[in-house]
Amino acid sequence: MKELSIEQKAQRYDEAIERAKNTIEVNQTIPNIVECVESLFPELKESEDERIRKYLTSFVELNSGVNLPPEDAKKILAWLKKQGKQKV
């Protein structure tokens, strides 16, 4: 079997990461699959902060105009989006 160059290995790894991300995206409701993929690629595991941010975003979107004035919802969503960009 032919030895792969570093560039070829990097390209294959990038392709595998993309497939793993797609697998997680498509199978979000099947925890066993997500956990399996995240165990193979720990860098794809979502942080607790990110999980909470996504939950709050969803909650605000669902309650906008119902229990939450739309203008307040826009401000909250903008703030949550900003928090997601502040990766250290």
What can you tell me about this protein's structure?
There is one protein chain. The protein has 88 residues and is mainly alpha-helical. The chain folds into two domains: 1-45, no CATH class; 46-88. The protein contains four helices and no strands. It has helices at residues 6-26, 31-40, 48-63, 70-85. Helix 3 (48-63) packs antiparallel against helix 4. The protein starts with 5 loop residues before the first helix and ends with a helix. The mean pLDDT is 91.
In short:
This protein has helices spanning 6-26, 31-40, 48-63, 70-85. The chain is mainly α. Helix 3 runs antiparallel to helix 4.
Structural descriptors:
single chain, 88 residues, mainly alpha, elongated
Secondary structure topology:
Layout: H1 6-26, H2 31-40, H3 48-63, H4 70-85
Helix pairs in contact: 3-4
Q: Quick one: how many beta strands?
A: 0
Tally of distinct domains:
2
What gross morphology would you assign? elongated
Helix content: over 70%
By DSSP (H or I, 4+ residues per run), the number of helices equals 4
Distance between the termini: 41 Å
Largest sheet: none
Low-confidence stretches: none
User: Which structural class do you get from the secondary structure elements?
Assistant: mainly alpha
Percentage of β-strand residues? under 5%
Write down the Rg: 18 Å
Q: What is the mean pLDDT?
A: 91
Helix-strand pattern = HHHH
